[in-house]
Structure formats: C-alpha cells, structure tokens
Amino acid sequence: MLEIKKACISYDNKTIFSDVDFLLKEGEIGCITGPSGSGKTSFLRALMGFIPLSKGEIYFNGLPLSPHSVEIVRREIAYVPQELSLPTEWVMDMINIPFSFKVNKVHPLIKEDLLENLQLLGLEKNILKKRTNEISGGQRQRIMLAVSTLLGKKLILTDEPTSALDINSCEKVLALFKKACKKGIMVLAVTHDLAFASACDKILHINNNNEND
Amino acid sequence: MKTIDIDYLSLTIGFLLLIIPVFYLWKFKTGIVKATLIGAARMVIQLFLIGLYLKYLFIWNNSFINLIWVLLIVYVASETALTRTKLKRNLLMMPVAIGFLVSSVLIGFYFLGFVLHLNNVFSAQYFIPIFGIIMGNMLGSNVIALNTFYDGIRREQQMYYYYLGNGATRQEALAPFIRQTLIKSFSPAIANMAVMGLVALPGTMIGQILGGSSPNVAIKYQMMIIIITISANILSLMICISLAIRRSFDSYGHLKQVFKEEKKK
Does B175 contact A at CB distance below 8 Å? Predict the structure, then answer.
C-alpha cells in the first residue's frame, strides 16, 4: 500500500503543491493528472526520494520514506521515466540493465514472459535484435514498461506512459498494467491522457490551487 | 658524457624561435598573441623559481624536507584541480588531496623501493623527479576525470534516477559514470602508450639521453615512468571518487551542488 499524507513540495520558497493526500492499494492503477508545471513529475520523483518533501509523509507498506528506508523502498519499485536513454548499443542490452542490479537478480529475465508483454504492447519480437538507435522513443518506453512488470516489484511508477502512443497503443499499455495488477502490483502513472486516466482506479489531480480528487 | 649547459645568450637565441608562432598567430588575427607571450613569460619565471628550489632540495637532500615538499605539491595540485574544475572546495578538497597523497606515496615508494632498490628512498636525485612526474600526471587526468564524472551525472540525471528507481544501489547507479570517467581520462594515455617511441621520442627518455644515460637505460626508465604514472592516476582517481561520493550526495542519493557556480542545466 502506498500512502501519501499532507505532501508538500517547495523550491526557493515557492510552493509547487501542498496538502496532497493519496492512497493506492495492492492491485490498483492510479494516475496523477494536472496542468503542465503543476508538479506531477516532482511528485512521482518524491515517491522515490529524489525530491524531498517540504512537509508531509510517504508510507510504503507502512514504512515511512526516510534516508534510512529509501533503499529498502526503492527495492520494491520499478520506475519508467518519460524519456530514457541508456548507454547501450543493443535493445537486448538495454532490457538486461535492470536485471543486472543485485536486488533484481532474484527475478531473472524470462524471455517468454518478455515476448508475451511485448506482444501485448503491439511490439514485434524482432525488436529485440535491433540497435537502440533503430527504435523510436515510444518503442523504447514500451519496451521498458514491458520490463518493469517482470522485475518482481510491488509498485510501478511511470511518467507519461502513453504520451508517444496512438489510442490503440494506450489501450495496450493499460492492458499490460491490468495484467500486472492481477498479481497485486500497484501502478502509479503521471499522465495527460484523459482516456488513460478514466480507466484508472484512482486519480490524483494536482493543480496550482492544490486541489486533489 | 656530460650535458652541455645552455648559457643565457644561447637561451635568448633559442627563444627567438618564438617569433615564428607569434608571427602566424598575429597575421591570422587569432587574438591569442598576448596569451602566448604571457604564457612564455610565466614559463620562464616559474621554471627559474623551480630551478632555484630544486637546487636547494638537492643540496640539502633531507628526507624530512623532501616529505614536506611532497605535502606542499599535493596541496598546490589539489587547489589547482579544484580551481580548474570549479568544484566546491569544502566538498572536494579532502578527497582530491587524499587521493593525490596516498596514490603518490604508494606508487612512488613502490617504484623507489622495489624497482630501483634504493637504500634511501628519500634520495633527492630519484625522489624529487619521480614524485614530481607522478603529481603532474595525476593533476591533468584528475581534472578531466572529475569534470567527466560530475558533468555526466548532471547531464544523464534521468539515467541515474532510472537506476536508483529500479533498485540499484548507489554504487551500481554510479558505475556507468565511473566507467565513462575512466574511459575518457585514460584513453589518451593508453593510446599514447601504444605508439610510444613510434610517433615521437618520449620526454623522460630524451631527458635521460641528454643527461648522459645510454638509450638502453633510458628506455627502461621510460617504460617505468609510463607504468607508474598510469597506475598512480587510476589509483588517485578511484580514491578521490570513492571519498568524494560520500560527500557529494545527500542521504537520498541526490547529487548536491558540487560546482561553485551551478552551470545552467
């Protein structure tokens, strides 16, 4: 369970948002919406400890996020940013990166599961044989989304997972998340996509007036 | 064989060669004529001063004074590295200085004791040039390395966050940046080593031959100088980075403002 209580982020004495409460339970898909510059991505990053909260608390399965617990919390998270460039020449090497981390070695990559996810996302299996500079940003993001559900994590955090995709592909991403949620995984995505948001179990709307639904 | 001294008149005749670069730099309006002349003037003053203090270091040949000299050049090299990289002194001074000191002492004494088998490893004739060449090389490679490392993390922040956000330890998340740093700062040295003697005769070797050594002895010293400088460079960098990492990231793994004036992202 992910619980956010009275969260507030400020930069240089300027409040980005304040008093944000949110609760996401196992098997739920949540999304963060709001106008550009409202602090959606900052909020997502705060959940991993990359941006400190000015006020408020974040709990992951009852454990408060703090300098002492941050590594423990991150072990349970898979994160897919909007734009990702990894220093690899081949797609397969890019896929293997998160599996090479010590904490993820208990869940080695099973190629059949990967191919199943890629198919679900409308990607051909021959994409695995390509170089990273031969695929688009959207394809790269979908591949890493496919990977994120295979790492054995309890929470997937993703930034604009459908921004570079057409409507059909958006539905496919949702299908992937729903499949993961059946295993008890929580998904929280920053999105501008109203169709995606309407299919989520929980919506957190952040705006300049700091209101949330 | 005794080296021919260059008297001041001959030195002046030699300096007349500077007219060639100055002429072309002036003719093509490069705007760096003044910098060239200032650079040459600084070189003359600095080298005369170094000649003066080295003369006394050799006359005294005192272990304690030689050690103080090492501490002094470690301090000067660390200050220079931080000035060139524009890194914050309070965060990086200790890592850089400790990296320089530990690395030069370990590698320098290893060479003087186990390779040259000196009875007195503080003997100025060997101690001063060996520590001097180690320090000079470490400074150059550490400046490139520190810039590459910190600029890399800032530029590729999304990659660093991706690693951490998927459960990587800080060490795992920093590994690609350390790898890139090592490649960028040591590739030139490795390439240089591979063509040593083919493209140009190396400095140490020329110095030894001019000093009266046989080419046979000179090449052995040259090999050793290359090996000890590369080893000392990497060792100092690894010590520096491993200490710097503890100081330059906050408790959540976020990079602090390490540059004096934060460059615009």
Answer: no
Which helix (H) or strand (E) covers residue B191, if one does?
helix B170-194
Q: What ipTM does this complex have?
A: 0.93
pLDDT at residue A86 above 50?
yes
- Interface check for B166 against chain A (CB to CB < 8 A): the answer is yes
Averaged pLDDT score across all residues of chain B: 92
A88 pLDDT exceeds 70? yes
According to the model, what pLDDT value does residue A56 have?
A: 93
Per-residue pLDDT at A208 exceeds 70: no
* Chain B: closest CA distance from residue A52 (Å): 8
For chain B, give every domain's residue range: 1-60, 62-248
pTM above 0.90, yes or no: no
From CA B254, how far away is CA B172, in angstroms rounded? Answer: 14
User: A98: which chain B residues are within 8 Å (Cβ-Cβ)?
Assistant: 166-168
One-letter identity of residue B109 = F
